[in-house]
From TrEMBL:
GO terms for cellular component: cytoplasm. InterPro entries: GmhA/DiaA, Phosphoheptose_Isoase, SIS_dom, SIS_dom_sf, SIS_GmhA/DiaA_subfam. It catalyses: 2 D-sedoheptulose 7-phosphate = D-glycero-alpha-D-manno-heptose 7-phosphate + D-glycero-beta-D-manno-heptose 7-phosphate. This is Phosphoheptose isomerase. Pathway: Carbohydrate biosynthesis; D-glycero-D-manno-heptose 7-phosphate biosynthesis; D-glycero-alpha-D-manno-heptose 7-phosphate and D-glycero-beta-D-manno-heptose 7-phosphate from sedoheptulose 7-phosphate: step 1/1. Zn(2+) binds at H59, E63, Q173, H181. It is found in: Cytoplasm.
Length: 199
């Protein structure tokens, strides 16, 4: 019974990935171009999200600053989820909704990219970060699900929306991390050529 349940999770995740390959390859390619244009002109990526999506923001930043699969020059990315002093001060003195937005206003510059990750599209602190990014003339790459929620209506034409066509948070997150790896792989391919990676 339990094993059947586990197998069903694998099947559902694989099915969603097959289905999403069709619909998401275009916005993911747009995200690669947006991020590439940003980092090759001296910009940086700021990444944010809650819970599992906070982990995704950190995962992305590690692969940009450290490396993905191949050696290449370091790329600038900062996860806005990691400084406990900043996070607790803002949440304590203002409110939790502003934990990312104030960091975006402090660090963001025109031409930077905000990677905004929310499975529901409705997390208030992520939406506030998008608003702050627009104030700073940054481009937003949004990773969402469930139809995009409120995120769909706050994004601009020049932003990129990668919306996973599913309702369950776990399944959406599994495609988010695949999309993040596609962005890293696409950026490396553009920078280094598209030969196969050694690892
Ligand atoms: O990882 C999971 C569930 O799989 C949770 O930690 C999840 O990320 C949290 O409940 C988040 O607060 C959900 O926020 P969001 O994706 O709707 O923005
Ligand atoms: Zn999770």
């Amino acid at each position: 019974m339990l094993e059947q349940r586990i197998q069903q999770n694998f099947i559902d995740s694989a099915d969603l990935k097959y289905q999403a390959a069709q619909t998401l390859s275009k916005p993911i390619a747009q995200a690669v171009q947006a991020v590439l244009a940003c980092v090759t002109s001296g910009g940086k990526v700021l990444a944010c999200g809650n819970g599992g999506s906070a982990a995704d923001a950190q995962h992305f930043s590690a692969e940009f600053v450290g490396r993905f699969e191949r050696e290449r020059p370091e790329l600038a990315a900062i996860a806005l989820t990691v400084d406990s002093s900043i996070l607790t001060a803002i949440a304590n003195d203002y409110d939790f909704e502003r934990i990312f937005a104030k960091q975006v206003r402090a660090l963001g510059q025109a031409g930077d990219v905000l990677l905004a990750i929310t499975t529901s599209g409705n997390s208030a602190n992520v939406l506030a970060a998008v608003e702050a990014a627009h104030e700073r003339e940054m481009t937003v790459v949004a990773l969402t699900g469930r139809g995009g929620g409120r995120m769909a209506s706050v994004l601009r034409e020049t932003d990129v929306h990668i919306c996973v066509p599913h309702e369950r948070t776990a399944r959406i997150q599994e495609v988010h991390i695949l999309a993040i790896h596609c962005i890293c792989d696409g950026v490396d391919a553009q920078l280094l050529g598209d030969q196969e990676s050694p690892t």
